[in-house]
Amino acid sequence: MRIIHTADWQLTRNNRLQDFKNSVNQIADAAKEYQSCVCIAGDVFDNSLPDKEAETVFAEFIANVYPLSVFVLMGNHDYARKVSALTPYKALEKENLIVLDDVRTIKVDINGEILNLLSIPHKWKRTTPEVIDELSAAIKTFSMNKQNGEYYMILGHFTLGGLDYGFPVDVDTEFIVPREILCEKDIDYIGLGHIHKYIHTGNIVYPGSIEMNNWGEIDNEPSFVLIDNDKVERVKLNVRPKYTGVLSQAIHDIDKIKDGSLVRVGITAQEGESFSIFKNDLTKKGCDVIVYARDTQQSVSIETDIESFQGKGRDDYISDRVEKAPSCYDIPYLKTLIQNIKVEIT
Ligand SMILES: [Mn+2]
Q1: Which of 42, 146, 226, 278 is the most exposed place for a label (fewest CB within 10 A)?
Q2: Which residues contact 92 (CB under 8 A, 6 or more apart)?
């Protein structure tokens, strides 16, 4: 039984969709090479109303790997109460595209081997005792009915309780599943999504996202997982290099910045001229450059890399970010800072 486990594609129309598509293509190539099915553990789309560009990447992937089976689970980004991002795909009733938007078990024949899947989509905004009871019962039933020689896998999109993720988990707003209910010993593989970095503990795996979604993820190397019977292998994706730093440091690091990198630079209102020269150098190296506005005195930074956000013009986006800045910031001051930087770099 060969299975590719991936998650958190978060496809959306932005200036980085090509990077994501590049990763999707590597997953398709691997699936075809290993003749494996593909399990996407949630958040294939960035939101419940995916744009045409994002849908095209996904639809092309399905066509590309045909007739290999693709199981796609609903995550919190795909989720909508009535019609989710996945509902139209479910309506297709395609044999090789199985949409999992509910807690249920399915049994499928994959090249003569039997795969049993229990799906746990992200339908709850937070953990309640009732939900945990429901899931616990479903997992128990699933593991108790085990047939010899068949493969048993849970595909889930949630935060697994009790792990140290390196960032705080808000228990009031996160859907957290306690590890104790997963019946780990009785399940062959527990394939999760939602946490954007590779985590492998026991037979529980988060494969990580397929590209960096935001700059907080710069150190998470994107990957997917290839399961070949008992063997579980992490496969790192070949993604473009990234660099982030304030302008003075970035200028110092110019030789370290690899060709074709995505580069993010923090600049102050006074640095416009040196930034222009630096940006020119980077462009020659085939890099894409985005900036964020910063101010040394107030240690303020406002993202201005708005090309990566859909549906809003650059200036609207920046104004919006400034308006919504935490109240500890001096809003009129921020406006002036942004305005100065815009004048400096355009
Ligand atoms: Mn998620």
Answers
A1: 146
A2: none
Cα–Cα distance for residue pair 215/210, rounded to 1 Å: 14
CA of 157 to the centre of ligand 1 (A): 7
CA-to-CA dists, residue 54 to 12, 14, 22, angstroms: 5, 9, 13
CA–centroid distance, 68 to ligand 1, in Å, is: 25
Number of continuous H segments (helices) and E segments (strands) in the chain: 8, 18
Cα distance between the two ends of the chain: 55
Q: Report CA(194)–ligand 1 centroid distance (Å).
A: 4
pLDDT digits (tens, 9 = 90+) for 274-310: 888 898 999 999 998 888 777 666 555 555 554 443 3
Please give the single-letter amino acid code of residue 326. Answer: P
Q: How far apart are CA 282 and CA 101, in angstroms?
A: 44
341 CA distance to ligand 1 middle (Å): 34
Helix (H) or strand (E) holding 4: strand 2-6
The domains of the chain, with CATH numbers, are 2-236 (3.60.21.10), 242-345 (no CATH)
195 alpha carbon – ligand 1 mean position (Å): 7
Q: Closest by alpha carbon to 184, among 204, 165, 166?
A: 204
Q: What H or E segment, with its residue span, contains residue 303?
A: strand 300-303
